[in-house]
Specification:
239 residues, alpha/beta, 9 helices
């Protein structure tokens, strides 16, 4: 039984080291780290290659710019066959040292995903500090209503459950994680939770969430509605 972390990186040469070091420093040894560089135009490819040369368990995938969902899918396709569990981690975030250990401890045979807590950092106006996870199985309607305290971009998935969905939906730009949670819930996948560990979400002004317009938000909601063949728009209204 082994674990693979899949990460995306786009022009994050000054940040990706925190993500890489957090995987190297896990209390569980031998965690794979597959990083898809999403067509970076800064020095990210050079920085990532240096990490790859220095550590046997790091693999770097170079791909044309295809946005986070496509980059996650590229990394997912390169997960070693012996990996049973997959952790998703954006290149500007990082894991607590006990992340893998505590998520594995929370897994049971009937679970497909374990959701951790989250520490948001980077802005006093962006809900700083630790947020823990409500300990119950969400319904499809709860997830459809975009209930972010329950699910984040980063979690530990059973690889088979993630592959069954066909990967992240590339047309749900910036909402591919939400779309994935909807898919898993519709499929009846079971969620576990641990408040004994967390990951760090780095708020960066001017990121995808900040620059999204009302029109773009509505377009992505309509795409999620189309993707899941529903007749009502998911989530809240813009703003």
């Amino acid at each position: 039984m082994s674990v693979a972390v899949i990460s995306t990186c786009y022009n994050q040469a000054d940040l990706i080291g925190d993500a890489v070091e957090s995987v190297i420093n896990q209390t569980v040894p031998g965690v794979y780290h597959i990083i898809a560089d999403d067509g970076s135009t800064d020095s990210s490819p050079t920085v990532l290659r240096q990490w790859e040369v220095a550590h046997d368990h790091i693999t770097v995938i170079q791909c044309t710019n295809r946005n986070p969902a496509g980059a996650f899918n590229a990394a997912l396709l390169n997960v070693p066959p012996d990996a049973t569990f997959i952790v998703t981690l954006c290149g500007d975030d990082w894991l607590a040292p006990n992340f893998v250990e505590e998520c594995l401890a929370a897994f049971h045979d009937n679970l497909d995903v374990v959701i951790p807590g989250i520490r948001r950092v980077g802005s006093p106006d962006f809900d700083e500090g630790l947020r823990l996870v409500p300990q119950h199985q969400p319904t499809v309607e709860e997830v459809w209503a975009w209930n972010p305290p329950r699910m984040w971009t980063t979690a530990m998935f059973r690889k088979a459950a993630l592959l069954e969905t066909g990967g992240f939906h590339t047309a749900a730009l910036g909402e591919e994680d939400w779309d994935m949670w909807i898919d898993l819930t519709i499929r009846g996948r079971r969620f576990g939770f641990t408040n004994k560990t967390w990951f760090y979400y780095r708020y960066i002004p001017g990121g995808l969430t900040d620059v999204k317009t009302r029109e773009e938000w509505d377009a992505h909601r309509r795409e999620i509605m189309r993707h899941h063949k529903r007749d009502t728009l998911p989530g809240p209204e813009f703003g």
